[in-house]
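HUMAN:
Sorry, I am quite new to this. Are you able to go through these amino acid letters and fold codes? The numbers rather puzzle me.
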Amino acid sequence: MSAIENRIDELYRAPLQEFTAARNALAKSLSGDEAKRVRALAKPTVVPWAINQVYWHARRAYDALMKSGERLRKAQLAALAGKKADLREAGDVHRRAIADAAREAERLAGAAGSRPSPDVLTRTLEALSLASEPPEAPGRLTRELQPAGFEALAGVTPTVRLKPETTSQTTVRLQPDPRRHHADKPSEAALKEQIAAAAQKRAREEEAALRKQEAAQRRRDAAVKKAEAEVERARRKMEAAEAALREVRGRG
């Protein structure tokens, strides 16, 4: 890495309130295109700055986040290609990685006197880790991001239909889409509609499964309460019997 790249990295590692002065000082020490480039560097807002600090000072959490995001993205694409993919497990790992990175970002920002919005921080971490291409160089993020959503699957052309499963895996099968009319790929709107319909179906299935689990839990709770009541009645009978026995012995 060149000396100028190292000095630019230092700008993004430094406390946020020092960025502008340090950038201007660096630009004055340079000339020509390098000076113009440095003067054009954007100052991060607090959320991307906090994420940059995770990259520079908590690399393990940052790397885990990026790896889990890549794994989830690959699982999504595999599922859309008709292959088995454990989306739930990949999603769980990714959510934990986001939470860990967010905690590190808040810790590092707090130590510097900054308080990034937790919601915006989480959304930006999610978007960054799922992006097919990095929006900016690692450690030099300057703006907040929104999760890519359907755009993350750009170029994927299947019609998605979910098959109910009893396991945690989601099976996705490819079906011809009559709206394609022999086109190489459907429109972005059609793809969004197909994926949204599949996601809604999956959500309904999961909601039904959750209601079933809740009903089973209520039955178990009722059984426990009934058993506890029977134990309480037995205890009271025993206490009454013991009291009667003591009374009889006292009369004797």
